[in-house]
Amino acid sequence: MSAAANITIKRLSSANEDEFFRVHGGGPCHCVAWWVPTWEGWSERSAADNARLRRGLFDANVHDGYLIYRDGVLAGWCQAWKRDAFAKLAAQFGAASDDDAWMIGCLVVLPAFRRQGVATEALEMVLDDLRLRGARTVDAYPKRGAADADELWNGPESTYARFGFTVVRDDAKRPVLRLSF
Asked: Parallel, antiparallel, or unpaired for β 101-109 and 137-140?
């Protein structure tokens, strides 16, 4: 990345919901994978189903992350929210309830901005903001052995390791990483 690049983040809010939908384009997920109660039936869900769920979250004033910009251009998305809001996480990973625990469920950089340090710089800003919001711990769930960047929707494990995340539940496919403040 050139020294002139300027990475910024903005908390998702009712004022920038349209930007969220631009990041997710016509893709099927709309970053609701962790909001559905189980993985059962996930592959049968349509993009319209997921967009409706996302709109319902927005209507309930749930703005669960950060938009990422490079030089003022929308470059990605990071889902970061209170971990206890996601029942699926507790069920899948055995997470004990903790009001001060947050999670990063998604860290996606749009293809034109990949391999430029965007994810690393954005994650540093997100972690700083979560700390200010009272997070004592932040969990992440990267996918190990992903064949290509499109499978890394949780962010690469190596990026989290740079910030001191450690493995708290090892798994060959999806470890749980944690950073404590």
From this structure: parallel
Closest CA to 86 of 67, 106, 108, 102: 102
20 touches 77 (CB < 8 A): yes
**What is the distance between the alpha carbons of residues 41 and 152, in angstroms, rounded to a whole number?**
21
Is the four-CA dihedral 133, 94, 47, 69 of positive or negative sign? positive
- Alpha carbons 149 and 133: distance in angstroms, whole number: 30
Domains of the chain: 7-180 (3.40.630.30)
Q: Are 163 and 123 in contact (CB under 8 A)?
A: yes
Per-residue pLDDT of the chain (181 residues; tens, 9 = 90+): 344 579 999 999 999 999 999 999 877 899 999 999 999 999 999 999 999 999 999 999 999 999 999 999 999 999 999 999 998 988 899 888 999 999 999 999 999 999 999 999 999 999 999 999 999 999 999 988 766 666 778 888 999 999 999 999 999 989 999 999 9
